[in-house]
Design goal:
Elements (H helix, E strand, L loop, with lengths): L24 E9 L17 E5 L2 E8 L8 H17 L3 E2 L5 E2 L2 H10 L1 H11 L2 E10 L4 H8 L1 H10 L8 H30 L5 E4 L7 E10 L3 H12 L6 E9 L12
Antiparallel strand pairs: 1-3, 1-4, 1-5, 2-3, 6-8, 6-9, 7-8
C-alpha cells in the first residue's frame, strides 16, 4: 500500500529493484486490457518511466518509486492524474487509488494473476465509458430555517418548543433535531430519485454518494458512454430547470470511473 514521500530522487531502473536509492517499490496507476501493454509517453511520479506489467489478459500501468512512503503532495497527485488522463485518451482504465504500491514487478504479476476474473469483469463493466460527477445544493443562507419555512411539521414543533421565549429541554432539542434530519433525508432521497430518472437515458449506471455538508441535496456519480457525454451535459441543464431557485447545480468530469471500478483485490 502507499506511503508518504520525502524528497524527490532519481527514478529507479525499469524493474524497480532495491538499490542504494531506496526501496524500489512498484507504483500502480491503473489496470488496462493486456493488448495495451506498451510504453506510455506521460512521465509518472518523480518523472519516472511509465510502463505496463502483464499477466494473462490484464496489465498494470506502473512506474518505479524509490521511496518507502508516498505523501499526497500536489506534484505527486498531479503526476498520478496526468497518467490517468493519458490513459483515458486510449482506453477506459480501472484507476487505482493514489499511493498504491507493490513490493516488486513479480508481486504485481501475482496480484494480476490472482484477480484476473474480477479485473476482467470490472474492465467489461466500464469499457467505453467515463465518470461524470453531479452535485446539487440548497443555495440558502440557513438550511434549518429554509426547512422551517417549507415544512409545516418542523415549523409547528419549533414554535411550540420555543414559545414565549422558553428554553427547550435537551430531549426536546434532540426531538427537533431528529425531525429535521428525517425531513432532510427524505428530501435528499426524493431529489436524487428525480435526478436519476431524468439522467438515466444517458447513463449506464448511477451511484449515489454520501452528502457531506447539510446543504447538499444529492451527490451522484454517473457512468456515461464517451459518445454521449455532450448529451449528458445537456440533460443536466434540463434537470436543473425542474428545480426552483433555492438549488444550485454543478457537474464535473470526465474522470476515470473511480466509483464503478471498485475491485476487492486479493493482494
Amino acid at each position: 500500500m502507499s506511503q508518504p514521500l520525502t524528497a524527490a530522487r532519481p527514478p529507479l531502473p525499469r524493474e524497480c529493484a532495491g538499490t542504494s536509492l531506496g526501496t524500489g517499490k512498484t507504483y500502480l496507476y491503473a489496470i488496462v486490457a493486456a493488448e495495451l501493454d506498451q510504453p506510455h509517453d506521460s512521465p509518472g511520479i518523480d518523472d519516472a518511466d511509465v510502463h505496463t506489467i502483464t499477466a494473462g489478459r490484464v496489465s498494470a500501468v506502473v512506474s518505479c518509486v524509490s521511496h518507502a512512503r508516498l505523501r499526497p503532495e500536489r506534484r505527486h497527485i498531479a503526476a498520478h492524474q496526468r497518467v490517468l488522463k493519458r490513459l483515458m485518451a486510449e482506453t477506459t482504465p480501472l484507476p487505482m487509488a493514489f499511493g498504491m504500491t507493490a513490493e516488486s514487478p513479480d508481486a504485481v504479476r501475482r496480484i494480476l494473476a490472482r484477480n484476473q476474473g474480477a479485473l476482467l469483469g470490472a474492465l467489461r463493466r466500464v469499457s467505453g465509458n467515463v465518470e461524470m460527477g453531479l452535485r446539487a445544493t440548497w443555495d440558502v443562507p440557513n438550511i434549518f430555517e429554509h426547512f422551517v419555512s417549507t415544512h409545516a411539521e418542523l415549523r409547528i414543533l419549533r414554535d411550540r418548543l420555543f414559545a414565549a421565549g422558553r428554553e427547550p429541554a435537551r430531549e426536546e432539542r434532540i426531538e427537533l433535531g431528529r425531525l429535521f434530519e428525517r425531513l432532510l433525508q427524505a428530501e435528499r432521497d426524493a431529489h436524487a430519485g428525480k435526478a436519476e430518472a431524468v439522467l438515466a437515458q444517458h447513463c449506464v449506471e448511477i451511484e449515489r454518494g454520501n452528502c457531506r455538508p447539510e446543504q447538499e441535496a444529492f451527490r451522484l456519480a454517473c457512468l456515461v458512454p464517451k459518445l454521449q457525454q455532450e448529451a449528458f451535459e445537456g440533460c443536466v441543464f434540463r434537470l436543473a430547470q425542474l428545480f426552483d431557485n433555492s438549488f444550485a447545480f454543478d457537474f464535473n468530469g470526465p474522470w476515470p470511473p473511480y466509483n464503478f471500478a471498485k475491485v476487492d483485490l486479493d493482494m
